[in-house]
Amino acid sequence: MTRFMHRALFLLATAGAASASLGACFLDDERPIAWERSRVVLGPVALKDRIAYVDSARDRVVSVDVSRPDAPAVDTFAIGRQAIFVMPAPDGQHLTVITRGEEALVEGQIDEEPQLWLVDTAQPDAQPVAFPIGSPFDRLAISEDGRIAVAYFSAGGADADGFFRNPNELAVIHLDEPPGAANPVLKTVRSFGAAPDGVVLSPPMIIPGAADDTPRVLAFVLAPNNLTVVDATYPERNEVSIRLDVGGVPSLPREIAFAPATATAYVRSDQARDVLEVRIQAEAPAAENPNSNDYRPALAELGAGGGPADIAVYDDAAGRRMVLAATPGTREVVVIDADTAELATVATPDPIDRILLFPDDPELVPRVAVLASLGSQLPRVHLLRLDGITDELVGADLGTVTLDEPVLDVVPVPGRELGMIVHDDERTVLGLLDVALGAVAPLQGVGRLDDYDFSPDGSFLIGATQGVERIGFLDLASLHPSDVRLDDAPAQVFSLQSGAVYIDHGDSLGQATILPSPAAPRSEALVLTGFLMADIFEERF
Amino acid sequence: MKPTTLAALCLATSLVTSLSGHTAHAERFELGMGGGGSLTTTDSMHALDDSGLGIFTMHGAVHLVSTAGVDILIDGAFESGTSAGTTFQSMSTETGVLLGLVGARARYHLSNHVAVHGRAAVGLGSVSIEILDPASRTPPLADRALGGSAYVGAGVDFLPIRRLRPDGRERMAFGLRAELGYLAMTPAELVSTHADEGNGDAIEIPTRATSLGQLDASALGLRVTFLGRF
Questions:
Q1: A536 with B214: CB under 8 angstroms?
Q2: Between chains, do B133 and A538 touch, taking CB under 8 Å as contact?
Q3: Contacts of A486 in chain B (CB under 8 A)
Q4: Beta bridge partners of A88
Q5: CA A97: distance to chain centroid?
Q6: Could you tell me if B163 lies within 8 Å of chain A, comparing CB atoms?
Q7: Per-residue exposure over A232-244, b if at least 16 CB sit within 10 Å of its own CB, e if not
Q8: B141, A509 in Cβ contact below 8 A?
Q9: How many CB atoms lie within 10 A of CB A106?
Q10: What distance in Å separates the CA atoms of residue A281 and residue A298, rounded to the nearest whole number?
Q11: Which among A159, A307, B41, B110 is least buried, having the fewest CB atoms inside 10 angstroms?
Q12: pTM to 2 decimals?
């Protein structure tokens, strides 16, 4: 090799090293570690006229406002790190989100504690309110007036992070008050060896005879063999524990119905011999204990007997609170006047384990109860007329509707005396039960009914099958079927208060088809894309 | 100043001063082709990847005039840049940049084989993106936008292979060019349209896209090209 070539190679190598060194000087422009987070999209969650999603990587709530279906608006709200649970508030406008927070391990991360976020989706400019809840709870119960929430751990919500975990811990949050030292209040309920299965909040109830006539929201904490009552209105006060296995028989509380006029709760438990009545009675608090309660629960068995499988509660035309309890063991349905504790029994030919009231509307007085034996999968249901049911002169009016296929489930149509009957696990064979007439019309779909919804006024059934790029509509007045062809397969369908039909396509980047009404043709549909990636290039971590 | 920076500058200086003397350079044009990569990334580009763009470049220049030992050339270049990345551990991204640049280059010969130059250019560019969630059944998001671009840079040419005319003037030379420069692009306003599935005749439901924001593909880049001077 010539001297020139040696020199040439040396110069080339030197030039290469110089360039690489010069380039290396600028390679400290690192990508923020936040872009390497794992991402989970919670939702879609239906609100009144909006659909909400929670992006756990971008720490935001994305709300699609379809109050104007021809011009949907996308709003975003910043929340904390690692959203793990989302739930709409009863008003259909607020959204609650629990964020787990983050422990800063590397540069770019920020320490953040678990929080409950209250998002007002109707106010795009409003900042979400954060309540520090202290522990990474993964479940939430909200009172029906939307003022009080209780955060708790689910049975399977084991948190791999952290050192200790207290499954009996609760956080009581007053959502209508600003966060502070006394809001939320963390409590550990008394445990007898088991973790809670769930929390049910009562409607606001005035305790009869109590000096404090403030309507109380009581939290009933359900656990195996145990029921704990916490005054969520005054969470600093002591809880009251009710043992359910005193007789040696284990009991699993499953369902609670309330009679707020008498401050009474009715508890149905698996393996229990009766419905348990828990009547909240006034009792003067102990003067020496500032956290003592001004009430005590008085317990009684209703006398339904036979191990109740389901209960239903309604107010009749006279305003009386009535409780229905199905006892499949005795093949009876017990009707209880909650105000007087008088009861009447109705014999049923089948072991009833499901009671549904029609019409299914809190503003309307139920007139008919549909009784079904779902566990036995029998090809019939029974209709119990509720008018005058406790009148001994009238007697019970119980009719039977015989079907061709076994009944696996009954779903009430909101606000109508109609119920959808499911005959198979794949939900391909359905029926529409007219409770008023006692007649059933068969329905058939192309495939499995993977998701469905009823329009708010009960006029349409809207269904979707995964993999089928169509959405089906059934006019419940005429039973006329129709469908709209979509451009992509649906994942979930929602019918909103505005009348709009929102079809989510299961795209983590965000894609939805919006129809202005169930009767709208395809030409009036609109597809909204990429809304979960809105302003991604403006994101700064 | 980082030690590596200082070392690099010293090395470059010794490289330049180690060479001396030059013969007449009367070439009419030059052509080059090569590649490189971006060394910096804007905040908006972080949403797509962390590795910067890989660059392919082709350029040509025509000698305009020489004055005070400095050659002025009219320079034109075509560049394309691509990158692929992952965001939030689950989203695959692809970014593409296409540029057409026209400008001027000022070149000074340090020796027969080495020259240094400075370059400035303006032009048009397009930025394209594609965002895909492999778990999703819907087409990826894709969009493209046009914008203006401007470039300034400086570099060094090393052409060890030279062929001379009988009169001693250079007939042709071949070698390498290393150039460090900053490309400024106007932020591209991108929206969340879907990639074309090839359903050209299908009647689709009207789609409303969401704004993804403005993507700024500006970057400091290093380019190394094979250069021919004629």
A1: no
A2: no
A3: 205
A4: A95
A5: 13
A6: no
A7: bbbbebbbbbbeb
A8: yes
A9: 6
A10: 7
A11: A159
A12: 0.88
Distances (CA, A) of A399 to A410, A417, B8, B121: 17, 15, 95, 88
B178 vs A15, A25, A487: nearest CB: A15
User: Which of B15, B191, B194 is closest, CB to CB, to A15?
Assistant: B15
Torsion, CA A400, CA A404, CA A406, CA A409, rounded to 10: -70
Contact (Cβ atoms closer than 8 angstroms) between residue B86 and residue B66: no
Q: Which residues in chain B have their CB less than 8 angstroms from residue A487's CB?
A: 204-205
Give this complex's ipTM: 0.85
First-to-last C-alpha distance (Å) of chain A: 56
Most A CBs within 10 A among B39, B88, B110, B222, hence the mutation to make, goes to B88
A2 touching B, CB under 8 A?
A: no
Q: What is the DSSP string of chain B?
A: --HHHHHHHHHHHHHHHT----------EEEEEEEEEES---TTGGGT-SS--EEEEEEEEEEEEEETTEEEEEEEEEEEEEEEEEETTTEEEEEEEEEEEEEEEEEEESSSSEEEEEEEEEEEEEEEEEEE-TT-SSPPEEEEEEEEEEEEEEEEEEEEEEEE-TTS-EEEEEEEEEEEEEEEEPPEEEE-PBPP-S-TT-----EEE-EEEEE---EEEEEEEEEEE-
Name the minimum distance, in Å, from the CA of B5 to any CA of chain A: 6
| Residue pairs between chains A and B whose CB atoms are closer than 8 Å | 176
Burial pattern B138-158, b for ≥16 Cβ within 10 A else e, equals bbbbbbebebebbbebebbbb
541 residues of chain A, pLDDT tens digit each: 455 555 555 555 555 555 555 544 444 468 888 999 999 999 999 999 999 999 999 999 999 999 988 899 999 999 999 999 999 999 999 999 999 998 887 777 788 999 999 999 999 999 999 999 999 999 999 999 999 999 999 876 556 666 677 888 999 999 999 999 999 999 988 776 667 889 999 999 999 999 999 999 999 999 988 999 999 999 999 999 998 876 677 888 999 988 888 899 999 988 887 888 899 999 998 888 888 999 999 998 876 667 889 999 898 888 888 889 999 988 999 988 877 878 888 999 999 999 999 988 878 899 999 999 999 999 999 999 998 777 766 677 899 999 988 999 999 998 888 999 988 877 777 889 999 888 898 887 667 889 999 999 999 999 999 889 999 999 998 889 899 999 999 999 999 999 999 999 999 999 999 999 999 999 999 999 999 999 999 999 8
The structure tokens listed for A57 are 């990587």
Q: Provide the CA B198 distance to its chain's centre, in angstroms.
A: 32
Distance, in Å, from the CA atom of A484 to the CA atom of A223, rounded to the nearest integer, reads: 47
What residues of chain A, 30 to 59, have a C-beta less than 8 Å from chain B?
30-32, 35-39, 57
Residue type, B122: V
Query: In degrees rounded to 5, what are phi and psi of residue A412?
Result: -75, 145
| Residue from B192, B220, B222 whose CB has the most chain A CBs within 10 Å, to mutate | B192
**Chain A, nearest residue to B177 by Cα:** A15
- How close A97 gets to chain B, by Cα (Å)? 21
CB A218 within 8 A of CB A203: no
User: Contact A11/B47, CB-based, under 8 Å?
Assistant: no
* A506/B contact by beta carbon, under 8 A: yes
CB contact (8 A) between residue A533 and residue B191: no
Nearest CA distance, B84 vs chain A (angstrom): 14
HSE (CB half, 13 Å, CA atoms) of A306? 20
B113–chain A nearest CA distance, Å: 9
Sort residue A272 into left (φ over 0), alpha (ψ -120 to 50) or beta.
beta
**Looking at this protein, which amino acid is placed at residue A124?**
P
Identify the closest residue of chain A to B42 by CA–CA distance.
A29
